[in-house]
Amino acid sequence: MQHTELGNLLRISRCFDIFRRQKMKDLDLYPGLTMLVSHVCRNPGCSQEFLAEKVCLDKTTVAHHLSRLEEKGYVERRVSVNDARVRAVYPTEKAMAIYPQLHETYTQFYEQLLRNLSDTDREEVARLSEILYHNALALVKEGKA
């Protein structure tokens, strides 16, 4: 087996990173940070743990990235009103101002990626990619146990 499928998925991911860099070169953020900003804008008050799960990074890396985003004025962290042990993450006005650009960039890439697929094919890609994601996540979680 040549593992072509995995290679294609990895190449798509790299293309997405390149595309984001091209589209967002005017921002002082690299692709990993833009993903966090997007998630925080869509989920104001979320926890760092929630973000770590959404972007598939360890909590320490997410905390480091959030510190960078705080320094740049994109997010702020506050003690959660529901649990004093949790730091809730909120977007700033600066983050909300760039969110439409982030959303448009992601949408443009996804639409281009799926452009020649029928609705049925798109549904199948969604179904299969969900399975692949959960399989990969399970493997990563096994490694941490």
Query: How many separate helices?
Result: 6
Query: How is the CATH topology named?
Result: Arc Repressor Mutant, subunit A
Uncertain stretches: none
Alpha carbon gyration radius: 17 Å
With strands numbered from the N-terminus, the spatial order across the biggest sheet is: 1-3-2
Name the CATH superfamily classification: Winged helix-like DNA-binding domain superfamily/Winged helix DNA-binding domain
Please give the CATH class.
Answer: Mainly Alpha
- The percent of residues in helical segments reads 55-70%
Globally, the shape reads: globular
In percent, how much strand structure appears in the residues? 5-15%
In terms of structural class, how would the helical and strand content be classed? Answer: mainly alpha
Distance between the termini: 29 Å
Strand segment tally: 3
- Total count of domains: 1
CATH architect. name: Orthogonal Bundle
Mean pLDDT: 90
- In N-to-C order, the SSE pattern is HHEHHEEHH
Please provide a written account of the structure.
It is built from six helices and three strands; from the N terminus they run ααβααββαα. α2 packs across α4 and α3 packs across α4. It has a single domain, classed as Winged helix-like DNA-binding domain superfamily/Winged helix DNA-binding domain (Arc Repressor Mutant, subunit A). The model has no long low-confidence stretch (mean pLDDT 90). By secondary structure, the chain is mainly α. The protein is globular, with a radius of gyration of 17 Å. The relative contact order is 0.11. A three-stranded antiparallel sheet has the order 1-3-2.
